[in-house]
Design goal:
There is one protein chain. The chain is mainly α. Helix content is 72%, strand content 0%. The chain contains five helices and no strands. The longest helix is centred in the C-terminal third of the chain and has 27 residues.
Length: 122
């Protein structure tokens, strides 16, 4: 399903800092427009890893903090999420590294569509 097709479906989201959102949007715009996106594979993988980390924090850690779940529960969650992220990061990097130019461009266009659907042409 494309991002534009999914735009009519119910959704949830997480918030980024303005700086990270702009950095991510600039990166995917640059990569999508480049004739050789594979040259940016490492940067794209790093960006995706960072966004996943922010998503984990927003969806799991932040609600625990707001619920005042306590030090032990918060620390347990932090350790578990950290371990999960350490296992996921190499998988993400490995998968992204194996994609060709068109596949990377498609991923960037998808990210553009979900990050800035108001931009014409996304």
């Amino acid at each position: 399903m494309t991002a534009s097709a999914a735009s009519t479906l119910p959704f949830i989201r997480f918030h980024l800092t303005e700086a990270l959102h702009q950095e991510a949007l600039d990166a995917v715009n640059t990569i999508a427009a480049d004739p050789k996106p594979t040259e940016y594979s490492v940067a794209l993988a790093d960006l995706i890893v960072e966004l996943v980390q922010h998503g984990f924090d927003f969806y799991f850690s932040e609600p625990l903090r707001q619920a005042d779940a306590g030090f032990v529960i918060n620390k347990t969650a932090d350790v578990g999420l950290s371990a999960t992220q350490k296992m996921m990061a190499p998988v993400i990097r490995n998968v992204i590294a194996k994609l060709d130019d068109e596949q990377l461009r498609t991923i960037c266009v998808f990210m553009q569509q979900i990050m800035a659907p108001e931009i014409e042409g996304n």
